[in-house]
Amino acid sequence: MKDHAPNSWEARAEAHSLYGFTDLPSVRERGTVVLTHGEGPYVVDTNGKRYLDANAGLWNMIAGFDHKGLAEAAKAQYDRFPGYHAFFGRMSDQTVALSEKLVEVSPFPRGKVFYTNSGSEANDTMVKMLWFLNRAEDRPQARKILTRWNGYHGVTVVSASMTGKPYNSVFGLPLEGFLHLGCPHYWRYGAEGETEAEFTARLAQELEDVIAREGADTIAGFFAEPVMGAGGVIPPSAGYFQAIQPILKKHGIPLIADEVICGFGRTGNTWGCQTYDFVPDAIISSKALTAGYFPMGAVILGPELTDRLQAAIDPIEEFPHGFTASGHPVGCAVALKAIDVVMNEGLMDMVRAGAPRMEAGLREIAKHPNIGELRGIGYMWALEAVKNREGKVPFDGKLSVSERIANTCTDHGLICRPLGQSIVLCPPFTLTDAQMDEMFEKLDAALRKVFAEVG
Ligand code: PLP
């Protein structure tokens, strides 16, 4: 147990705060890091130590931690109109402007937007919309939701049920009717001798089989991240979306792109679905939507779902759903500024320009024999640690290799995230070349140290 001075920030944190998604033995040994502020892509703790945050918070702080324009947009809106809802036929002018903008930058020729406070709530909202319109269309049995193993969609009861992670069993989740299909990670799940095209075809066949088994008329939707993020940065196997979308279309099952991580530039395009060349039926957005400067999520419906939802609303003249802070004017003003920063002030161009450099630097590091795979795109990458590269043999879980690497990085002032046996890097888009080199150097040193200990 790490000792802290009585009444220090660390001791106070440990006395009164609950920790989400935290390895508590690690905190007991190493102590809590309490942060006071940020400078560009760095965060600073109560002892004045600086950390290059190669996770951009939780993928969301794409403009770094001290973007003046975003803070000023929030301040100006707080001064003008600090809060409102979107109920009873009233909403703020900023909400109107953001919906217009989101439809304009979406891949849809037309559509409509509904706001939430988080990505989890946006997924829940989308599921409720599908259940609502299926009931109105006299198909109340069409409730099942298809997602994939390793997919991450959030933590509320419904979005946790969608998430394909075994840890949700501690809550007695998933709920009935949430089905998980195969993860499109060829390197890990491709069978011996199977080509990538054959692997993709196998996943498409699995989808056909599940639809046949369950009955297409019982399924409400298929949700997928274009690149799985919290599953360990897993880009889809080649041709994956091109293989599954026609099957979903044939059976009338909407494809919902969960763009909470990919949306607004992380893959080098506005949307991950553009990078992987498909147009979904709706988009779930959050995180970079406000560059992390305000909690907000959004459901963006494409034309068909917009019309079906409207037709379902008409007979009862109401969509009985919404949050107190749905369409919060400050969130909307910040999102409008964030979209401008990403699309017009060059933030997305920085990802496009920096991605080859990021990949090249990580490829050098990935030459280490204990790295089995480097995978990613744009500014989202993962290095997977293995005991044996040839056989893709993982390290014994008890060694906590990725946690040790991440902890060593933290000691040296670099924040990166252990996910399974992978180390994930998803920095702010504003990273300079020198900061990227700092990330490479610190990561490489930590990998070498830990692999020398466990290798
Ligand atoms: N969907 C994806 C793809 C995510 O990565 C996340 C969070 O990481 C969520 C949904 C949930 O978002 P939130 O944490 O804002 O509820």
TrEMBL record:
<dbReference type="GO" id="GO:0009448">
    <property type="term" value="P:gamma-aminobutyric acid metabolic process"/>
</dbReference>
<dbReference type="InterPro" id="IPR015421">
    <property type="entry name" value="PyrdxlP-dep_Trfase_major"/>
</dbReference>
<dbReference type="InterPro" id="IPR015424">
    <property type="entry name" value="PyrdxlP-dep_Trfase"/>
</dbReference>
<keyword id="KW-0663">Pyridoxal phosphate</keyword>
<dbReference type="InterPro" id="IPR015422">
    <property type="entry name" value="PyrdxlP-dep_Trfase_small"/>
</dbReference>
<dbReference type="GO" id="GO:0004015">
    <property type="term" value="F:adenosylmethionine-8-amino-7-oxononanoate transaminase activity"/>
</dbReference>
<dbReference type="GO" id="GO:0030170">
    <property type="term" value="F:pyridoxal phosphate binding"/>
</dbReference>
<dbReference type="InterPro" id="IPR049704">
    <property type="entry name" value="Aminotrans_3_PPA_site"/>
</dbReference>
<comment type="similarity">
    <text>Belongs to the class-III pyridoxal-phosphate-dependent aminotransferase family.</text>
</comment>
<keyword id="KW-0032">Aminotransferase</keyword>
<protein>
    <submittedName>
        <fullName>Aminotransferase class III-fold pyridoxal phosphate-dependent enzyme</fullName>
    </submittedName>
</protein>
<dbReference type="Pfam" id="PF00202">
    <property type="entry name" value="Aminotran_3"/>
</dbReference>
<dbReference type="GO" id="GO:0009102">
    <property type="term" value="P:biotin biosynthetic process"/>
</dbReference>
<keyword id="KW-0808">Transferase</keyword>
<dbReference type="InterPro" id="IPR005814">
    <property type="entry name" value="Aminotrans_3"/>
</dbReference>
